[in-house]
# Entry
Amino acid sequence: EVQLLESGGGLVQPGGSLRLSCAASGFTFSSYAMSWVRQAPGKGLEWVSAISGSGGSTYYADSVKGRFTISRDNSKNTLYLQMNSLRAEDTAVYYCAKYGTTVTGDAFDIWGQGTMVTVSS
Amino acid sequence: SYELTQPPSVSVSPGQTARITCSGDALPKQYAYWYQQKPGQAPVLVIYKDSERPSGIPERFSGSSSGTTVTLTISGVQAEDEADYYCQSADSSGTYTVFGGGTKLTVL
# Structure
Protein backbone atom coordinates (compact mmCIF):
# COMPACT_ATOMS: atom_id res chain seq x y z
CA GLU A 1 0.00 0.00 0.00
CA VAL A 2 1.30 3.43 -0.96
CA GLN A 3 1.59 5.50 2.20
CA LEU A 4 3.08 8.71 3.58
CA LEU A 5 3.37 9.17 7.34
CA GLU A 6 4.37 12.54 8.79
CA SER A 7 5.81 13.11 12.25
CA GLY A 8 7.59 15.80 14.24
CA GLY A 9 4.86 18.37 14.71
CA GLY A 10 4.15 20.04 18.03
CA LEU A 11 4.13 23.26 20.00
CA VAL A 12 7.10 25.59 19.57
CA GLN A 13 7.79 29.16 20.67
CA PRO A 14 8.18 31.99 18.16
CA GLY A 15 11.73 32.04 16.85
CA GLY A 16 12.15 28.36 17.56
CA SER A 17 12.90 25.41 15.27
CA LEU A 18 11.25 22.12 14.39
CA ARG A 19 12.04 19.30 11.96
CA LEU A 20 9.26 17.41 10.26
CA SER A 21 9.71 13.95 8.79
CA CYS A 22 7.66 12.01 6.25
CA ALA A 23 8.20 8.26 5.92
CA ALA A 24 7.23 6.86 2.53
CA SER A 25 6.32 3.27 1.67
CA GLY A 26 4.79 1.28 -1.17
CA PHE A 27 6.54 3.05 -4.07
CA THR A 28 10.04 3.77 -5.38
CA PHE A 29 10.66 6.89 -3.31
CA SER A 30 13.72 8.13 -5.18
CA SER A 31 11.82 8.23 -8.49
CA TYR A 32 9.42 10.96 -7.44
CA ALA A 33 9.57 14.61 -6.54
CA MET A 34 8.03 15.38 -3.17
CA SER A 35 6.49 18.41 -1.57
CA TRP A 36 5.25 19.95 1.67
CA VAL A 37 1.85 21.66 1.69
CA ARG A 38 0.38 23.40 4.72
CA GLN A 39 -3.07 24.45 5.86
CA ALA A 40 -3.58 27.03 8.58
CA PRO A 41 -6.62 26.45 10.83
CA GLY A 42 -9.79 27.20 8.87
CA LYS A 43 -7.81 28.31 5.82
CA GLY A 44 -6.90 26.94 2.40
CA LEU A 45 -4.00 24.90 1.12
CA GLU A 46 -0.61 26.61 0.71
CA TRP A 47 2.29 25.05 -1.16
CA VAL A 48 5.46 25.34 0.94
CA SER A 49 8.36 23.57 -0.72
CA ALA A 50 9.33 20.87 -3.22
CA ILE A 51 12.35 18.68 -3.93
CA SER A 52 13.33 16.59 -6.95
CA GLY A 53 13.70 12.84 -6.77
CA SER A 54 17.47 13.01 -6.50
CA GLY A 55 17.36 15.88 -4.02
CA GLY A 56 19.44 18.04 -6.32
CA SER A 57 16.77 20.68 -6.91
CA THR A 58 14.72 22.44 -4.26
CA TYR A 59 12.00 25.10 -4.42
CA TYR A 60 10.38 27.29 -1.79
CA ALA A 61 7.41 29.59 -1.42
CA ASP A 62 8.40 33.19 -0.75
CA SER A 63 6.76 32.97 2.69
CA VAL A 64 9.31 30.41 3.93
CA LYS A 65 12.38 31.06 1.78
CA GLY A 66 15.49 31.46 3.92
CA ARG A 67 13.81 29.93 6.99
CA PHE A 68 12.78 26.42 5.88
CA THR A 69 14.95 23.73 4.29
CA ILE A 70 13.58 20.69 2.47
CA SER A 71 15.71 17.56 2.13
CA ARG A 72 15.37 13.84 1.59
CA ASP A 73 17.21 10.62 2.40
CA ASN A 74 16.44 8.16 -0.37
CA SER A 75 18.19 5.35 1.51
CA LYS A 76 15.64 5.78 4.31
CA ASN A 77 12.65 6.66 2.09
CA THR A 78 12.17 9.79 4.17
CA LEU A 79 11.41 13.43 3.39
CA TYR A 80 12.27 16.24 5.81
CA LEU A 81 11.38 19.85 6.46
CA GLN A 82 13.67 21.83 8.75
CA MET A 83 11.81 24.88 10.00
CA ASN A 84 13.74 27.70 11.65
CA SER A 85 12.81 31.17 12.88
CA LEU A 86 9.22 30.05 13.25
CA ARG A 87 6.44 32.63 13.36
CA ALA A 88 2.84 32.53 14.54
CA GLU A 89 1.72 32.55 10.91
CA ASP A 90 3.51 29.23 10.35
CA THR A 91 0.89 27.54 12.55
CA ALA A 92 -0.75 24.92 10.33
CA VAL A 93 -1.23 21.28 9.52
CA TYR A 94 1.73 20.28 7.37
CA TYR A 95 1.10 17.64 4.72
CA CYS A 96 3.71 15.62 2.88
CA ALA A 97 2.63 14.97 -0.72
CA LYS A 98 3.97 12.93 -3.61
CA TYR A 99 4.08 14.36 -7.10
CA GLY A 100 2.46 12.27 -9.78
CA THR A 101 3.76 10.14 -12.61
CA THR A 102 4.38 11.10 -16.23
CA VAL A 103 0.70 10.31 -16.73
CA THR A 104 -0.68 12.47 -13.94
CA GLY A 105 1.91 15.21 -14.25
CA ASP A 106 2.38 17.59 -11.35
CA ALA A 107 -0.66 16.34 -9.47
CA PHE A 108 -0.24 15.40 -5.84
CA ASP A 109 -1.54 11.85 -6.10
CA ILE A 110 -0.68 10.72 -2.57
CA TRP A 111 -0.96 12.75 0.65
CA GLY A 112 -0.02 12.00 4.22
CA GLN A 113 -2.44 12.49 7.10
CA GLY A 114 -0.70 15.69 8.20
CA THR A 115 1.12 16.83 11.33
CA MET A 116 0.13 19.89 13.33
CA VAL A 117 2.63 22.66 14.03
CA THR A 118 1.64 25.32 16.54
CA VAL A 119 3.84 28.38 17.02
CA SER A 120 2.89 30.15 20.23
CA SER A 121 4.39 31.48 23.42
CA SER B 1 3.19 36.44 -6.89
CA TYR B 2 0.94 34.29 -9.04
CA GLU B 3 -2.62 33.65 -7.88
CA LEU B 4 -5.49 31.34 -8.77
CA THR B 5 -8.98 32.70 -8.08
CA GLN B 6 -11.92 30.53 -7.00
CA PRO B 7 -15.39 31.52 -5.75
CA PRO B 8 -15.58 31.07 -1.96
CA SER B 9 -18.79 29.07 -2.11
CA VAL B 10 -21.16 27.23 -4.42
CA SER B 11 -24.52 25.78 -3.42
CA VAL B 12 -26.62 23.24 -5.29
CA SER B 13 -29.49 20.87 -4.60
CA PRO B 14 -29.00 17.10 -4.81
CA GLY B 15 -29.13 15.86 -8.38
CA GLN B 16 -28.22 19.22 -9.88
CA THR B 17 -24.94 20.18 -11.54
CA ALA B 18 -22.26 22.10 -9.65
CA ARG B 19 -19.64 24.12 -11.50
CA ILE B 20 -16.58 25.48 -9.73
CA THR B 21 -14.27 27.83 -11.61
CA CYS B 22 -10.60 28.65 -11.18
CA SER B 23 -8.99 31.59 -12.98
CA GLY B 24 -5.32 32.39 -13.55
CA ASP B 25 -3.23 34.07 -16.20
CA ALA B 26 -0.93 31.07 -16.70
CA LEU B 27 -3.69 28.48 -17.09
CA PRO B 28 -3.47 28.49 -20.91
CA LYS B 29 0.13 27.26 -20.49
CA GLN B 30 -0.06 25.14 -17.36
CA TYR B 31 -2.22 22.17 -16.46
CA ALA B 32 -4.73 22.42 -13.65
CA TYR B 33 -5.51 19.85 -10.98
CA TRP B 34 -8.49 19.59 -8.63
CA TYR B 35 -8.72 18.22 -5.09
CA GLN B 36 -11.62 17.40 -2.80
CA GLN B 37 -11.10 17.87 0.94
CA LYS B 38 -13.58 16.84 3.61
CA PRO B 39 -13.31 18.07 7.22
CA GLY B 40 -10.42 16.57 9.12
CA GLN B 41 -9.12 14.69 6.07
CA ALA B 42 -6.26 15.12 3.64
CA PRO B 43 -7.08 16.33 0.12
CA VAL B 44 -7.91 13.77 -2.57
CA LEU B 45 -7.08 14.25 -6.26
CA VAL B 46 -10.25 14.22 -8.39
CA ILE B 47 -9.02 15.70 -11.71
CA TYR B 48 -5.53 15.89 -13.24
CA LYS B 49 -4.23 17.62 -16.37
CA ASP B 50 -7.35 19.78 -16.71
CA SER B 51 -9.81 17.01 -17.54
CA GLU B 52 -8.50 13.54 -16.69
CA ARG B 53 -10.09 11.53 -13.91
CA PRO B 54 -8.01 9.23 -11.66
CA SER B 55 -9.17 5.67 -11.20
CA GLY B 56 -11.71 5.36 -8.44
CA ILE B 57 -13.16 8.84 -8.91
CA PRO B 58 -16.84 8.76 -9.93
CA GLU B 59 -17.72 9.68 -13.52
CA ARG B 60 -19.85 12.57 -12.31
CA PHE B 61 -16.62 14.51 -11.74
CA SER B 62 -15.26 16.17 -14.88
CA GLY B 63 -12.94 19.04 -15.76
CA SER B 64 -12.59 21.46 -18.63
CA SER B 65 -10.42 24.37 -19.68
CA SER B 66 -11.05 27.53 -21.67
CA GLY B 67 -8.47 30.27 -21.86
CA THR B 68 -7.56 31.54 -18.41
CA THR B 69 -10.33 29.60 -16.65
CA VAL B 70 -10.65 25.95 -15.72
CA THR B 71 -13.87 24.43 -14.43
CA LEU B 72 -14.66 21.45 -12.22
CA THR B 73 -18.12 20.09 -12.97
CA ILE B 74 -19.96 17.68 -10.69
CA SER B 75 -23.02 16.25 -12.41
CA GLY B 76 -25.85 14.79 -10.38
CA VAL B 77 -24.44 16.10 -7.10
CA GLN B 78 -24.81 13.82 -4.10
CA ALA B 79 -24.78 14.70 -0.41
CA GLU B 80 -21.38 13.03 -0.07
CA ASP B 81 -19.89 15.57 -2.49
CA GLU B 82 -20.22 18.34 0.08
CA ALA B 83 -16.61 19.39 0.68
CA ASP B 84 -13.98 22.01 -0.04
CA TYR B 85 -12.52 21.94 -3.54
CA TYR B 86 -9.13 23.35 -4.50
CA CYS B 87 -7.53 23.94 -7.87
CA GLN B 88 -3.76 23.69 -8.28
CA SER B 89 -1.46 24.78 -11.06
CA ALA B 90 1.94 26.39 -11.62
CA ASP B 91 3.24 29.84 -12.47
CA SER B 92 4.13 30.62 -16.08
CA SER B 93 7.67 29.29 -15.64
CA GLY B 94 6.32 25.99 -14.35
CA THR B 95 8.60 26.23 -11.33
CA TYR B 96 6.30 27.14 -8.47
CA THR B 97 3.12 25.36 -7.45
CA VAL B 98 0.11 27.40 -6.42
CA PHE B 99 -3.32 26.56 -5.02
CA GLY B 100 -6.53 28.45 -5.43
CA GLY B 101 -8.22 29.77 -2.30
CA GLY B 102 -10.73 26.93 -2.24
CA THR B 103 -14.48 26.66 -2.82
CA LYS B 104 -16.91 25.28 -0.27
CA LEU B 105 -19.55 23.19 -2.01
CA THR B 106 -22.79 23.02 -0.06
CA VAL B 107 -25.43 20.45 -0.98
CA LEU B 108 -28.77 21.95 0.05
